[in-house]
Protein backbone atom coordinates (compact mmCIF):
# COMPACT_ATOMS: atom_id res chain seq x y z
CA UNK A 1 0.00 0.00 0.00
CA UNK A 2 1.20 3.54 -0.62
CA UNK A 3 2.06 5.15 2.70
CA UNK A 4 0.11 8.30 3.51
CA UNK A 5 1.55 11.34 1.78
CA UNK A 6 3.44 9.13 -0.65
CA UNK A 7 2.47 8.67 -4.27
CA UNK A 8 1.68 5.22 -5.58
CA UNK A 9 4.60 3.27 -6.98
CA UNK A 10 4.69 3.10 -10.78
CA UNK A 11 6.13 0.13 -12.62
CA UNK A 12 7.04 0.41 -16.29
CA UNK A 13 6.77 -3.16 -17.44
CA UNK A 14 6.19 -5.43 -20.40
CA UNK A 15 4.02 -8.46 -19.78
CA UNK A 16 6.49 -10.97 -21.20
CA UNK A 17 9.65 -9.38 -19.76
CA UNK A 18 11.34 -11.68 -17.26
CA UNK A 19 13.17 -8.68 -15.74
CA UNK A 20 9.84 -6.97 -15.13
CA UNK A 21 8.36 -10.19 -13.78
CA UNK A 22 10.99 -10.36 -10.99
CA UNK A 23 9.92 -6.96 -9.80
CA UNK A 24 6.23 -7.81 -10.07
CA UNK A 25 6.79 -10.84 -7.85
CA UNK A 26 8.63 -8.72 -5.28
CA UNK A 27 5.87 -6.08 -5.25
CA UNK A 28 3.29 -8.83 -4.79
CA UNK A 29 5.23 -10.58 -2.02
CA UNK A 30 5.68 -7.33 -0.16
CA UNK A 31 2.00 -6.46 -0.62
CA UNK A 32 2.75 -3.19 -2.39
CA UNK A 33 0.10 -1.58 -4.52
CA UNK A 34 1.45 -0.18 -7.78
CA UNK A 35 0.38 1.37 -11.03
CA UNK A 36 1.24 -0.81 -14.03
CA UNK A 37 2.49 1.19 -17.01
CA UNK A 38 2.88 -1.01 -20.08
CA UNK A 39 5.85 -0.47 -22.37
CA UNK A 40 5.39 -2.49 -25.56
CA UNK A 41 8.85 -3.77 -26.46
CA UNK A 42 7.67 -5.18 -29.80
CA UNK A 43 6.49 -1.71 -30.82
CA UNK A 44 9.79 -0.19 -29.65
CA UNK A 45 8.18 1.92 -26.93
CA UNK A 46 11.30 1.41 -24.77
CA UNK A 47 13.10 3.74 -27.18
CA UNK A 48 10.56 6.55 -26.85
CA UNK A 49 12.23 9.75 -25.61
CA UNK A 50 9.98 9.89 -22.55
CA UNK A 51 10.91 6.38 -21.50
CA UNK A 52 14.61 6.99 -22.22
CA UNK A 53 14.46 9.75 -19.62
CA UNK A 54 13.65 7.03 -17.07
CA UNK A 55 16.18 4.52 -18.37
CA UNK A 56 18.73 5.75 -20.92
CA UNK A 57 19.46 2.11 -21.78
CA UNK A 58 15.92 1.67 -23.06
CA UNK A 59 15.10 -1.42 -21.01
CA UNK A 60 12.22 -2.32 -18.76
CA UNK A 61 11.60 -2.51 -15.87
CA UNK A 62 11.72 0.95 -14.37
CA UNK A 63 10.21 1.87 -11.04
CA UNK A 64 9.13 5.36 -10.12
CA UNK A 65 8.59 6.16 -6.46
CA UNK A 66 7.71 9.84 -6.22
CA UNK A 67 10.84 11.70 -7.29
CA UNK A 68 12.95 8.54 -7.29
CA UNK A 69 13.47 6.65 -10.56
CA UNK A 70 15.21 3.28 -10.59
CA UNK A 71 15.86 1.14 -13.64
CA UNK A 72 17.38 -2.35 -13.55
CA UNK A 73 15.54 -5.09 -11.70
CA UNK A 74 18.39 -5.81 -9.30
CA UNK A 75 18.61 -2.19 -8.17
CA UNK A 76 14.83 -2.03 -7.89
CA UNK A 77 14.70 -5.15 -5.74
CA UNK A 78 17.41 -3.80 -3.43
CA UNK A 79 15.51 -0.52 -3.12
CA UNK A 80 12.24 -2.28 -2.33
CA UNK A 81 14.01 -4.55 0.14
CA UNK A 82 15.38 -1.62 2.13
CA UNK A 83 12.32 0.59 1.96
CA UNK A 84 9.76 -2.17 2.53
CA UNK A 85 11.35 -4.79 4.78
CA UNK A 86 8.18 -6.89 5.03
CA UNK A 87 8.60 -10.35 3.48
CA UNK A 88 12.41 -10.11 3.26
CA UNK A 89 13.85 -11.31 -0.03
CA UNK A 90 17.29 -11.94 1.42
CA UNK A 91 17.89 -14.40 4.26
CA UNK A 92 19.86 -13.08 7.24
CA UNK A 93 22.22 -16.08 7.06
CA UNK A 94 25.29 -14.70 5.28
CA UNK A 95 26.00 -17.79 3.23
CA UNK A 96 22.41 -18.02 2.01
CA UNK A 97 22.38 -14.32 1.29
CA UNK A 98 25.53 -14.64 -0.82
CA UNK A 99 24.02 -17.65 -2.57
CA UNK A 100 20.95 -15.55 -3.41
CA UNK A 101 23.18 -12.87 -4.89
CA UNK A 102 25.14 -15.44 -6.85
CA UNK A 103 22.09 -17.25 -8.25
CA UNK A 104 20.44 -13.93 -9.11
CA UNK A 105 23.54 -12.81 -10.95
CA UNK A 106 23.79 -16.07 -12.87
CA UNK A 107 20.35 -15.24 -14.25
CA UNK A 108 21.06 -11.50 -14.66
CA UNK A 109 24.45 -11.77 -16.24
CA UNK A 110 24.72 -15.23 -17.75
CA UNK A 111 21.25 -16.24 -18.87
CA UNK A 112 18.75 -13.42 -19.48
CA UNK A 113 20.94 -11.15 -21.65
CA UNK A 114 21.69 -14.10 -23.86
CA UNK A 115 18.12 -15.22 -24.23
CA UNK A 116 17.76 -15.40 -27.95
CA UNK A 117 17.71 -18.28 -30.38
CA UNK A 118 21.36 -18.02 -31.38
CA UNK A 119 22.57 -18.51 -27.87
CA UNK A 120 20.18 -21.04 -26.38
CA UNK A 121 23.11 -23.20 -25.36
CA UNK A 122 24.13 -20.51 -22.88
CA UNK A 123 20.75 -20.84 -21.21
CA UNK A 124 21.24 -24.57 -20.77
CA UNK A 125 24.69 -23.91 -19.35
CA UNK A 126 23.29 -21.40 -16.86
CA UNK A 127 20.52 -23.75 -15.77
CA UNK A 128 23.02 -26.59 -15.32
CA UNK A 129 25.12 -24.27 -13.13
CA UNK A 130 22.08 -23.35 -11.04
CA UNK A 131 21.25 -27.03 -10.54
CA UNK A 132 24.74 -27.61 -9.13
CA UNK A 133 24.80 -24.40 -7.12
CA UNK A 134 21.52 -25.09 -5.37
CA UNK A 135 21.62 -28.84 -4.98
CA UNK A 136 22.80 -28.86 -1.35
CA UNK A 137 20.81 -25.93 -0.07
CA UNK A 138 17.45 -26.05 -1.85
CA UNK A 139 14.43 -26.79 0.26
CA UNK A 140 10.94 -26.22 -0.97
CA UNK A 141 12.44 -23.19 -2.70
CA UNK A 142 15.89 -22.29 -4.07
CA UNK A 143 17.78 -21.69 -0.83
CA UNK A 144 15.46 -23.14 1.81
CA UNK A 145 11.82 -23.40 2.73
CA UNK A 146 11.09 -19.68 2.41
CA UNK A 147 10.80 -17.79 -0.86
CA UNK A 148 13.83 -15.54 -1.27
CA UNK A 149 15.51 -13.45 -3.93
CA UNK A 150 16.96 -16.31 -5.95
CA UNK A 151 13.45 -17.64 -6.54
CA UNK A 152 12.37 -14.32 -8.06
CA UNK A 153 15.17 -14.54 -10.58
CA UNK A 154 14.82 -18.21 -11.36
CA UNK A 155 11.08 -18.57 -12.07
CA UNK A 156 10.70 -15.99 -14.87
CA UNK A 157 13.71 -17.52 -16.56
CA UNK A 158 12.26 -21.03 -16.37
CA UNK A 159 8.92 -19.80 -17.72
CA UNK A 160 10.66 -18.06 -20.60
CA UNK A 161 12.75 -21.12 -21.33
CA UNK A 162 9.67 -23.34 -21.47
CA UNK A 163 7.20 -21.07 -23.20
CA UNK A 164 9.40 -19.17 -25.61
CA UNK A 165 12.34 -21.41 -26.30
CA UNK A 166 10.84 -24.87 -25.78
CA UNK A 167 13.75 -25.88 -23.60
CA UNK A 168 13.26 -29.37 -22.18
CA UNK A 169 13.35 -28.68 -18.45
CA UNK A 170 13.26 -32.39 -17.53
CA UNK A 171 17.04 -32.26 -17.86
CA UNK A 172 16.98 -29.94 -14.84
CA UNK A 173 15.06 -31.84 -12.13
CA UNK A 174 15.72 -29.42 -9.28
CA UNK A 175 14.64 -26.40 -11.30
CA UNK A 176 11.58 -28.32 -12.50
CA UNK A 177 10.63 -29.05 -8.89
CA UNK A 178 11.07 -25.40 -7.91
CA UNK A 179 8.95 -24.36 -10.89
CA UNK A 180 6.13 -26.59 -9.59
CA UNK A 181 6.40 -24.99 -6.13
CA UNK A 182 6.33 -21.44 -7.53
CA UNK A 183 3.25 -22.20 -9.59
CA UNK A 184 1.26 -22.69 -6.36
CA UNK A 185 2.06 -19.24 -4.93
CA UNK A 186 -0.36 -16.36 -5.63
CA UNK A 187 2.48 -13.79 -5.73
CA UNK A 188 4.06 -15.75 -8.56
CA UNK A 189 0.74 -16.53 -10.28
CA UNK A 190 -0.34 -12.87 -10.28
CA UNK A 191 3.01 -11.80 -11.71
CA UNK A 192 2.79 -14.24 -14.63
CA UNK A 193 3.07 -12.60 -18.05
CA UNK A 194 -0.42 -13.67 -19.15
CA UNK A 195 -1.95 -12.08 -16.02
CA UNK A 196 -0.67 -8.58 -16.83
CA UNK A 197 -2.97 -5.85 -18.16
CA UNK A 198 -0.97 -5.45 -21.35
CA UNK A 199 -0.89 -9.15 -22.21
CA UNK A 200 -2.73 -9.93 -25.45
CA UNK A 201 -5.70 -12.32 -25.01
CA UNK A 202 -3.94 -15.00 -27.07
CA UNK A 203 -1.10 -15.19 -24.52
CA UNK A 204 -3.31 -17.11 -22.08
CA UNK A 205 -2.86 -20.26 -24.09
CA UNK A 206 0.65 -19.58 -25.40
N1 LIG B 1 19.78 -5.85 -16.18
C1 LIG B 1 18.50 -5.32 -16.59
C2 LIG B 1 18.13 -5.91 -17.92
C3 LIG B 1 16.86 -5.28 -18.48
C4 LIG B 1 16.46 -5.92 -19.79
O1 LIG B 1 17.24 -6.58 -20.49
N2 LIG B 1 15.16 -5.76 -20.12
C5 LIG B 1 14.65 -6.31 -21.36
C6 LIG B 1 13.36 -7.07 -21.07
S1 LIG B 1 13.60 -8.44 -19.94
C7 LIG B 1 14.29 -5.18 -22.29
O2 LIG B 1 13.74 -4.17 -21.87
N3 LIG B 1 14.62 -5.30 -23.60
C8 LIG B 1 14.30 -4.30 -24.54
C9 LIG B 1 15.20 -4.30 -25.74
O3 LIG B 1 16.02 -5.20 -25.86
O4 LIG B 1 15.06 -3.38 -26.54
C10 LIG B 1 17.45 -5.66 -15.50
O5 LIG B 1 17.63 -6.65 -14.79
O6 LIG B 1 16.48 -4.92 -15.34
From TrEMBL:
It catalyses: RX + glutathione = an S-substituted glutathione + a halide anion + H(+). GO terms for molecular function: glutathione transferase activity; maleylacetoacetate isomerase activity. CDD domains: GST_C_Zeta (cd03191), GST_N_Zeta (cd03042). Coiled coil: none annotated. It is an enzyme of class 2 (transferase). The keyword Transferase applies. Residues 79-201 form the GST C-terminal domain. PROSITE patterns: GST_CTER (PS50405), GST_NTER (PS50404). Its EC number is 2.5.1.18. The keyword Membrane does not apply. This is glutathione transferase. It comes from Salix purpurea.
